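Input.
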Amino acid sequence: MNDTLTSVKVTTALSKTTEGQQKGKTMLIVVSPAKSLDYETPIRTRKHSEPQFLKEADTLARQLKKMSPDDLCELMNISSKLGELNYGRYANWKTPFDPEQARQALFAFKGDVYLGLKAEQFDAADVNFAQKHLRILSGLYGILRPLDLMLPYRLEMGTRLKNKRGNNLYDYWGSKLTDALNEEFSSQRSKVLVNLASNEYFSSLQPKALEADIISPQFKDFSSGKYRVLSFFAKKARGEMAAWIIRNRIDSPDKLKQFDVEGYRYSPDDSTASKLVFLRKDKGKN
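Output.
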């Protein structure tokens, strides 16, 4: 990495040092990670934090470390080239992370959602807001805050990796991720989770056990005579909404209806209290 990182201590939701800040929070946003990663582009912030579930991630990484490239190909349904790449990644895994090898999650992921997020354009205040409000669900790390350091990896949440807790990663994480979010919600005056994650990753949570109202925005584009969810555009729109919330310091679920980036408009006729639908007629504005 081109930028030397200096650590910042980020405490839990129940910490006395951040309790006042936590009470000022009104919403949490969850998004999916991405398979595409960027560990080359220079980044502007030197701040970083440590993943909450680093011990659990280390357990998974050490299990994967024992697998051959062919084993990883079969497990993850990936090419031989990617099998070799990820074999090398897990072979080099060690904690604590070397800041020269790791990168903050916000700047490491580069998939469709992150094309919409455009985190590289965030200023310091945006990054600080994101650190308090944005959570990235991860098969390996469980939950990542934007400034949490991570080593490059591939392990999708839907991977059927047998482990000491069950037959897949949903079994492995169990209620841990839900409990972690509930801990954060416990000190918030308003408990709202904005679900901008895919079904694969949101399924790692237990909605009935979440102590918050869940709002799941949905983005549809006009195609072949009707409005429908188009994967690439929907993923990018999730990132755009997350960025819009961060940049505009959106602090209440009702304000989400004002989202109008890249031609999307809220459709009250197609929406419910828990599902906000946004329609776009002309993708050419994208």
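The two ends are 32 Å apart (CA to CA).
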